[in-house]
Amino acid sequence: MATHARQGPCGDLASRLFATRKLTLDLAAPLSDADATVQPFPDASPAKWHLAHTSWFFETFVLRDHAPGYRPFDDRYAFLFNSYYEAEGPRHARPRRGMLSRPSLDEIRSYRAHVDEALERTLPSLSPAALELVELGINHEQQHQELFLTDILATFAENPLEPAYGELAPPACFAAEPLSWHAGREGIVEIGAADAGFAFDSERPRHRVFLSAHEIANRRVSNGEWRQFIDAGGYRTPTLWLSEGWDWVQREQVSAPLYWRDEATEFTLAGRREIDWAAPVSHVSFYEADAFARWAGARLPTEAEWEDFASSADPAIGNQLDGAGPVLPRPGGGMFGDVWEWTQSAFASYPGFAPAAGAVGEYNGKFMSGQFVLKGASCATPRGHSRASYRNFFPPHARWQFTGLRLARDA
Ligand SMILES: [Fe+2]
Q1: Residue 71 Cα, ligand 1 centroid: separation in angstroms?
Q2: Inter-CA distances, 121 with 22, 52, 53, 54, 395, Å
Q3: Which of 101, 352, 361, 383 falls between 20 and 30 A from 265, CA-CA?
C-alpha cells in the first residue's frame, strides 16, 4: 500500500477524497429510487448499494478504527453493505441486494453526508496508517464508480423501453486506423508497481519476467472486425474456442457482443444507437476475445507483454471518465481508455506477494482463482485511477464491463 498517502497526481488527499465522493453522488443524480434499486443479475449491484457500500468502506476501515468517538449512521448497515469481508462478519447475500427497497435513495444520501462530515472532521488528525486507508478508500470508490456505470447499463439493458442514462453525440465518421504490429521487447524486463506511490497489493512487488520474441498490435480490435468474425461463422466454429468457452457459447446462446441488438445497433448508456464500426469492440468475454484472436491468426498478449509495451504510455490520457454522464468507447484511442483489454494471463500472485495487513488484506488476494487479468482502462474508469501495472480481473465469461482486446503474436 501507499507509503506517501498525501501525495498523488491529482492534488492533495482531501481534495481528491471529496471530489471522488461528489462524483459518485453526481453519477446517481439522473436516477430514480427505482432505477437505483434494481439488480440486473447477481454479479451486478444496485446503484444504491454502490453508494452505500463505498461509504461503509470509509466508515468501517477509517472512521470506526481510527476516529475516536465516531458513531455509525445506522448499526444495521454493516450487515447490508459489507461486500465480501469475512473478517467484518456476516452480511446480506449478494444476489439479494436488489431486494433492498429500503433504505431509500435519500436515506443513503444522508448516510453518505454523515460519513463525509466525519471524514472532514477527522482527516487532519489521522495517523499515516489511517491516511493510507483513505487513499485505498478513494481508489476503492473509483472502482465502484466504474461498476456503477456498467451496472446501470446492465439495468437499463433489461428494460424494453430502452431508457437512456444520458445523451451522447452521434458517432463521428472515423475509419479504424490500419492494423500494424510493433515489436515487443525480448528478454528480461520488470513488471509490477514500484514501491513509491499508491498501488493495490496485487501489483507488487515489482519483479523480473522473461519475454519471448513477440509483436503487439497498434490498436484494439474494432467493431467492424468483430462483424467479420461473426459473418465468417466465428461463433459457430468449435475449433476456434477453448473447451469451456465453447460450452459457454452454446449454453448461453452467445452470437454477438453483449449489447448488440441487431445487425446495425447496440444498447448503450445513451440508449440504442448505431454501432460505430471503427470503435473498439466492447462487452466481449475472455472466451470470445480468445476465439477471435485464434480466428485472426494471433493470440492475446500476456500481461507482461502488455505492461512492458504500455510502460512508456501516459495512463491519464485517452477516453476515460472525467465527470458524471454516459460514456462509450470511441475510435482512435491508445493503451488507456475506451475498453479494458483481456490478456491471456491468469490473475495470480507475484513472487513475494503479501496481502495488505488487516481486514483490507481480503481486497484482492482471495480472488486469485479462475480470473483473467485485464489491462489499461475503459471509458468508465475515472481518469487518474489506472496505470501500466494495474491489474483488473474478471472471470472468463464476464462481459458486462467495457472489455475488448488487442492482438499479439509470436515473432
Ligand atoms: Fe467494494
Answers
A1: 22
A2: 17, 20, 21, 18, 40
A3: 383
Q: Ligand 1 centre from 148 Cα, in Å?
A: 11
In angstroms, the CA 267 to CA 287 distance is 21
Cα angle 123, 66, 205 (rounded to 5 degrees) comes to: 90
First-to-last alpha carbon distance for the chain, in angstroms, is 37
For the segment 191-221, what is each residue's pLDDT rounded down to a tens digit?
Answer: 999 999 999 999 999 999 999 999 999 999 9
d(CA 283, CA 171): 18
CA distance linking residue 389 with residue 203, whole number of Å: 6
Collect residues with CB below 5 Å from ion ligand 1: 83
The residue whose grid cell reads 519471448 is: 212
CB atoms within 10 A of CB 202: 24
CB 341 within 8 A of CB 284: no
In this predicted model, what pLDDT tens digit does every residue of 366-378 receive, in sequence order? Answer: 899 999 999 999 9
91 C-alpha to ligand 1 centroid (Å):
13
82 is written with which cell numbers?
459489507
The pTM assigned to this predicted structure is 0.96
List the alpha helices (DSSP H) in 13-96: 13-28, 47-58, 65-66, 77-81
Q: How far is the CA of 219 from the centre of ligand 1 (A)?
A: 31
Q: How far is the CA of 401 from the centre of ligand 1 (A)?
A: 16
